[in-house]
Amino acid sequence: MKSDRLLAILLLLQTRGRVPAEELAAELEVSARTIYRDIEALSAAGVPVYAERGRHGGIALLPGYRTDVTGLTADEARALFVLAAPGPHSALGLDSALASALRKVMAALPAPHRPAADLTSRRILVDPDRWLPGPRTEVELDVLHTAVFTDRRLRIRYRHSGDSRPRTYTVDPYGLVNKAGVWYLVADRRGSPALFRADRIAAATALEDPVRRRAGVELAEVWQTLRRRVEERNRDVRVTARVHRSRLDMFARIVAPVLAAPLGTEADGDTAGPGAGDGGDEGDEGGEGDEGDEGDWVTVRLAFSALPAVSVLLQFGPWVRVVDPPEAIDELLLRVRETAALYDSQPGDAPSDGPPP
Question: Is 28 in contact with 9 (CB distance < 8 Å)?
């Protein structure tokens, strides 16, 4: 709507100062001609806005002019209070600042919108943490936060997964990302994008050198590149397995990150597998609700990072059967034999050679 666009222009000019018409047009997905018409409309409504031509020109408000947020709609006001999740703000030391900001927003809202915004803050809770995330190392974000906002290079001591000792890197930070309750530092290392889990950074020092980011590249763009890389890398081991239908829901929840294709819906006719006729365990993972499907098997496709990773399927016991490739079956049999050998030792005996590789 034009009214929403006029308010958006006003707020952009208020926060950014002088802005080229082409930049406003790109931001609001309209033509530059439309922007100039909108500027005329704002001026006619009494807003002190003007345009300057030339290389360093643009559209700006007269110095000192401010507006409040009374242009917020009811849904916009509610959205602000839904976003007030405590986790990320706590880690950045912004809890009190967030509470203060929300009080100011509430005071500036039109009176009819205040009850809905207040009710939203009491009825909707956003918890960014995953279920059972396991113990977490306390993350000190102060140095990272300082380097990000002062545009300085960072020297970090970072421990990669599987490494016993940290390594030292000098990086150029773009920013911090909180994904599912885990903080990540997004940076360039030697001009290439790199991702570092904050809880694996053993030490960090903000250097005096200014950051050396690639020109025109922003945090969101680098994050998307790194996210795709993480999601696509090391998924070369393709596995076909059959899952007993009574365990299908539980299986889908646990192995969701490695599912290479949507779960099938038809049984393959093999009904002589383990558990046929017994209905499975109690509760929502089987038992009631099977309704005669005992013994049915569903074919699933999985993609693992490496062959040893298929051993995660052993947790499902006889309810999951790998059928391809043969090397995945061999890997599971090897792990089963190693585990059996461990428990065949005398009770209380410690393994002499340590865990298997």
Answer: yes
